[in-house]
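Quick one: structure tokens for this chain, please?
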Amino acid sequence: MSTTNETSAKHSVITATKKIIYIIIALSGIGLILWLDSWFMNHADMPKLGRDMSYGLLFIVGFLTSFHCVGMCGPLIIGYTAKSTANGYKAHGAHILYGIGKTLSYTSIGALFGAFGAVVAFTPYTQGAVGVAAGVFLILFGLHMLDWFPSLSHFRIKTPGFVMRFIGKEYRKHSNPFIIGLLNGLMIICGPLQAMYVMAAGTGSWTEGAVLLFFFGLGTLPLLMGFGFLTSLLSVNLTPKLLKASGAIVMVLGAIMLNRGLAVTGTGMDFNTMLARASLHFSPVVAETQELPSEQIIHMDVLRSGYSPNQFTLRKGIPVKWVIDSKELTPCNNAIVVPQYELEIKLQQGEQTIEFTPPESGVVPWSCWMGMIPGTFIVVDQAAAGADRGRVPAIYESLRQNMASVWHEVKQMFQDDGQSQ
């Protein structure tokens, strides 16, 4: 009896230790992701790459989760394929119609969720809060897909009964593959699809929500349109592993959305601001002059690649004139929010000057309205400030320069390989 108890206790300790290790790995991974996301957004030409990378991840999530979708949607595909063949139509034409309907449905509903997020997020703070909530949901759902914690096994949004009854009724009524594809977007019982719709709402933009679901929908098509051939090549044990891989990517997307939501709220809890605050603590700005100007003038260019520069050192209590030259406006960079100063700046082509006075010292975060392109004001006491406006602490700047150097070497390596070929 005692041996059984000892074995049970030992097993419990091992299980608890594994969970702790999983949590540490997950937190470390999220920290690394946030640091990379912060660096991508602060480096020239990186915001566009960061967005493209997110779209690529969404496509991969769609492809990996489509192995799970085959179990739910496979019979529907068999049904319309059989009916199309019986009516003298070729199967590949039916698949194309189904794919168009499915992608159109996902994209349209993604736009609706993005528009809903925009309505709910009527201020920068609430917009950021929606992004934070969506990010937390994605992280928890990713953990659910990884199946690390049994307590999260039922974590999902319950689909209303009337929606399921409507879908069932319409499926029985229609045999047109295009209509079936359109109805597929209403299959909110699908957990991964729920996560993507929540992510679309978190963007607070109908266009961004539509684009996110478009790439996710594209990712699901290859397997669903040829599942009879592809699934025969897969072992039964491989599908759960692929689903877990998509869960890890969902967590990555959730961490990025959480961080960008925090950036828009202006709480200073986003990774970029905390990194700047830490570097300021360990490497404070040193005075280069004791002269106190009557005003501070800072200049910034708005480019397709981001804001340049996006870090400024300011003196507390001295009026600031922020001269913004909008050279290349995009739907993402065309508005700036500085929540702590209650500034919402709608950018226009050409120069415009924004005036404000920093009341307190510290790190003041700001970003584009979507939280994807961040920046910071480092406000210091008059006696401690230097005259080098735009300068950032040495450790932070050194880190950015080293990363820029590494990125330059990587690009040069690929360019050299391309030329040699």
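The first helix runs from residue 2 to 42.
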